[in-house]
Target: Taste receptor type 2
Amino acid sequence: MMSGSYHRPAHQVLRRHFPPDIEEKQPLRMIQTCSSSENDLSPSLVTLMLIIIGTECILGILANGFIAGINTAEWIHSKVLSTSGKILLFLGVSRIVLQSCMMLELTLSSTSPQFYNDDIMYHTFRGCFMFLNHCSLWFAAWLSVFYFVKVADFSYPLFLKLKWRISGLMPWLLQLSVFVSLGQSVLFFQNNYTMNCNNLFSLPSFNSTKKKSFAESAVINLVLFLNLGIFIPLIMFMLAATLLIISLKRHIFHMKSNATGSRDPSMEAHLGAIRAISYFLILYIFKVLALFLYMSNFFDINSPLNILCKIIMATYPVGHSILLIQDNPGLKRAWKRLQTQVHLYFKK
Model:
């Protein structure tokens, strides 16, 4: 199925990473075995899931293609790109590649499962999926941090210093995020824990009970270590969004206290910004939780909760990108111009 990168058939995972005596006695809690009948989804459910996820991926590619295209055109026309434009360009390109990869994986896993389950193909998709997801999360977090630093009104010296230097630091931070994401995906790709587990299992002091307990602990520790990276941008995103909302609400309170009775358009803009930031935060949290649960193999491969995680992971890029187009002034103007041109074209 789509993005099955982290759900290898249980018997293959066990044989690859653990000695035969552990595999034959009892499967690990983190990797559950099931019969072939349990693994087979009904054709109607498969079709429905393919339609939902495929539609989300197509819409996401279109929305992010629009964001990347507008910022690329601005870069070519002006010979320079603003800091927010750079972040949006990085974010849009990473999501285009991510959702294209998701669609390709969905197609291969559904039409050519034997080819998809080949070791090289499987690990390639797994590494790419992890790298692109982490990049997307980091870029969205930096976008939230940038908006917070530029829009929020705080008088702390550290904040003022960051406000002055954020534009110069951001290109380096974006590149650093790419290298961090690449490092985590390479660690996951290489499965370095296999050699460590096998070496420890070979010690004569380990009986079967201790081996099984250690194997479970090793898998859990590996999952937590590799997934820990997605919570760092989550914390950054949450802090930046929360502090920005606090700053905007404080500013609204001051505007209300000085209001003359008429409804201030500036106040409406601030309220709209708070709503948009709240939507961004909700989408981001759901995306991180779904990705964490999916990558950690907490659910059976074809369980409804696992399928829900897949849908949420495909929903976030398109939902967040559409909100960005609606709330970013430059993107919103470009979208209206595009709508006008399309309308005139069909009218002719």
User: Anything to note?
Assistant: Confidence is low (pLDDT under 50) at residues 1-7, 9-39, 192-215. Residues 208-257 form the longest helix (50 residues).
